[in-house]
From TrEMBL:
GO terms for biological process: translation. This is Large ribosomal subunit protein bL17. Keywords: Ribonucleoprotein, Ribosomal protein. Part of the 50S ribosomal subunit. Contacts protein L32. It comes from the Bacteria. It comes from Thermovibrio guaymasensis. Belongs to the bacterial ribosomal protein bL17 family. PANTHER family: LARGE RIBOSOMAL SUBUNIT PROTEIN BL17M, RIBOSOMAL PROTEIN L17. InterPro entries: Ribosomal_bL17, Ribosomal_bL17_sf. SUPFAM superfamilies: Prokaryotic ribosomal protein L17. Pfam families: Ribosomal_L17. GO terms for molecular function: structural constituent of ribosome.
Amino acid sequence: MRHRIKGKKLGRPTEHRILMLRNLVTDLMEHGKVVTTVARAKELRRLADRVITKAKQEDKVKAIREVLEIVTKKDIAYKVVNEIAPKYKNRNGGYTRLLHYHFRKGDAAPTAIVMLVESGQKEEEEASAE
């Protein structure tokens, strides 16, 4: 039984699964959205939210180091800390959105789009208006 075990195995050995998810997070942060299978998307969402939360720290050097533990490209890590994370400074989690998409041609696997939620521009406008 899989009691108290977080995450799915995704039919991959541990090292391959970790690398696959790190690459998916890197692509998500680079492009803003990724199309993948639903099972991978759910695991990706957990990891991506964790990366953005780490990037929101006050200490930029520590934040970049912690983001680089997951993100595979240095320039993307800087982008996450300096551009993406400040958009979500007033948001407590839920930085990604998962939309079910089509079925993949070939094996008919259900696919989903994982995208970064746009920062609350309406929230910022309301806060500045008050």
